[in-house]
Amino acid sequence: MQRASVLVSLLLLVVVGRVATEADPEPQGQTVSVPPAAPSLTDPLPFDEPTVERFFTAVKSQLRCGYPMFGIPSLVPLKLSYTLKTSFDLLSLKKINVVASNFTVYGLNDFTWDPSRTRFTRTSATVPLSFPNVTAFAHTSLNGANGTSYVQLRNVTVRLDAQYEEKDDLLYVTELGGSILLEDAKVKIASLFPKSAKLSKIWNKAIGKSLPILVELFNGGKLKIEYLSRLLSGAKFYAMNTINNALNTHGLSFDRLVESMAKFADGSPDSLQCDGTASDTLVGWLRA
């Protein structure tokens, strides 16, 4: 791609010079210079798919180690010290008080990416990731009845959107966003109906089937879940601070970040890849 661009530029210089000479044959030795066009900040940038594939392969390994120097623990599995307390009416059949804690999430290192829907510019990036199976376990208490509950999410598609800019030759993330699509889900809430295993099975199945619809409504802003919105807002704030701290610490501009990501993909000695040590430290924004 770059060689083709250089060849086209040289041909343009030859053509422009020839046209200028033919239009005015008297001034001999006149040099015609064409200033290079300034690259657009919003034009899509070409990327090498094998390099990006190697980068994500390295990321999957890195998730096991995390980056303790930036406060990022091991994410395989992801352990969250977060306690959820809420209550709801189950179709006026039952008032349920829920307490959930000790969350453990599996499957975050098993994903693929879609090159056809990936887009990079000098100010934004969109990357879709697909997870075949993400399962979250938690200790739950429903109206005082304790147990272990889980949610299994199948064929999850996450679209990550990021916006960034350069100031004083340093790159800063200014916005993080995205969306989630869910194909299917399986739910088992322990002690939902302690006296009726059959009723518990029916309602667990119904809740699992409704999750893809609820996720779609939440993405579109048609469903408001206050504690989930606070949770995502906290995660976004923590992620942006962590990323910008890393960018600033290593003095990365956009071009230097691209170079650093290529080194990471190739496992260069200075790539800050996984050193084989994993930390069990809980995620900072949840611990706080």
TrEMBL record:
Return the InterPro entries for the record. Answer: Haemolymph_juvenile_hormone-bd (IPR010562), To_sf (IPR038606)
Secretion signal, residue range per the UniProt entry:
1-21
Q: Does the keyword Glycoprotein apply?
A: no
Q: Does the keyword Membrane apply?
A: no
Print the keywords alphabetically.
Answer: Signal
Q: What is the name of this protein? A: Lipid-binding serum glycoprotein N-terminal domain-containing protein
The species this protein was found in: Anopheles coluzzii
